[in-house]
Amino acid sequence: MFDYLCEAGWPHSVVEVAREGFGRTGEMLCSLVALLSCGPLQATRIESDELPPETMIGDMLSSALDVYSRERRAAVARFLETDATAARRVRGGIRPARRVSFLAHVVFRVEGGLVVNRMRWPLADELRRQADVE
After folding, report:
1. Per-residue three-class SS string for 29-93
2. Cα 73 from chain centroid?
C-alpha cells in the first residue's frame, strides 16, 4: 500500500513516516494518517474532548502511565489477577501471553482517544465512529 501511495503522488516524506510507524507498531492508524494527509480537511469546527479527572495510581498520576511503560504493564498484570468483570473476560477470551498487551492497548485507546482542539469534519467524525463503535 505504501508503495502505491508513492506511485500515486502522495508526498514521499508522509508515506515514509507512515510506513515506518506501521513497521514499528503494526497499527493501521499509521496508514490512515498517510491517506488523510492529502485529503481536503473541510474542518467545520474545533472542539476539545472532555478529559476525565486525573487520578492517582500509587504515587503517580494516571496520565504518566502508558501502554509502553513497565509500570502500566505491571499494573495491568496485577489487575488481570483480580475478580473484576473485565479481568475475567480477558482471561476467558485472550491467550495468556497476549492478555497484558491486549488490555493495556484497550486502556490506551480509551485514554488516547481524547484530545484538546480536535478538528471536526464529516469524514473524521465517521472514521472515529467506525473505530470506536465498529
Report:
1. HHHHHHHHHCCCCCCCEEECCCCCCCCEECCEEHHHCCCCCHHHHHHHHHHHCCCCHHHHHHHHH
2. 16
Residue 16 Ramachandran class (φ > 0 left, ψ -120 to 50 alpha, else beta)? alpha
For each of the chain's 134 residues, which pLDDT tens digit applies? 899 988 988 889 989 999 999 998 888 778 888 877 776 666 678 888 776 677 787 777 776 666 667 877 888 899 999 999 999 999 999 999 999 988 988 877 776 666 777 778 887 788 778 877 76
The grid cell for 3 is 508503495
Say how far apart CA 90 and CA 83 lie, in whole Å.
11
Phi, psi of 78 (to 5 degrees): -65, -40
This prediction has a pTM of 0.46
CB 94 within 8 A of CB 18: no
